[in-house]
Amino acid sequence: MVNTQYKEIIDYLKEAQLDLENAEDSIKDTIKKIDAYLDENPDDEEQFNEWEFLKSRLEDIEEIIEEIEDIIRDLQS
Q1: What DSSP designation does 1 have?
Q2: How far apart are CA 29 and CA 50, in angstroms?
Q3: Rounded Cα distance, 46 and 8, in Å
Q4: What are phi and psi of 3, to 5 degrees?
Q5: Tell me: the pLDDT tens digits for 7-21?
Q6: Following DSSP, what letter does each residue of 2-65 receive, concatenated?
Q7: Residues 64-77, buried b or exposed e (16+ Cβ, 10 A)?
Q8: Cα 33 from Cα 48, distance rounded (Å)
């Protein structure tokens, strides 16, 4: 059973995780749109730079989600 002192923290972390997962989905959708655009316009450096930036942020968010999941597991044990 989860210690009650951690319940509020766990709830907050789960909410943060959900928000990050929503952001992750949004970034993935934008990346797909840029991919389609770049297929037709491969020389658009500005869009390519945006694509690289979003890919980097996506990786950061994925790492943070994993860290939150680890913290939640630790608090629940």
Answers
A1: -
A2: 13
A3: 43
A4: -60, 135
A5: 889 999 999 999 999
A6: --HHHHHHHHHHHHHHHHHHHHHHHHHHHHHHHHHHHHH-TT-HHHHHHHHHHHHHHHHHHHHH
A7: ebeebeeebeeeee
A8: 12
Structure tokens at 16: 């943060």
pLDDT tens digits, 28-49: 999 999 999 999 999 999 999 9
How many C-beta atoms lie closer than 10 Å to residue 51's C-beta?
A: 18
Distance, in Å, from the CA atom of 35 to the CA atom of 33, rounded to the nearest integer, reads 5
Structure tokens at 30: 């934008």
What's residue 23's pLDDT?
96
Q: At what angle do helices 45-76 and 4-40 cross, to 10 degrees?
A: 160
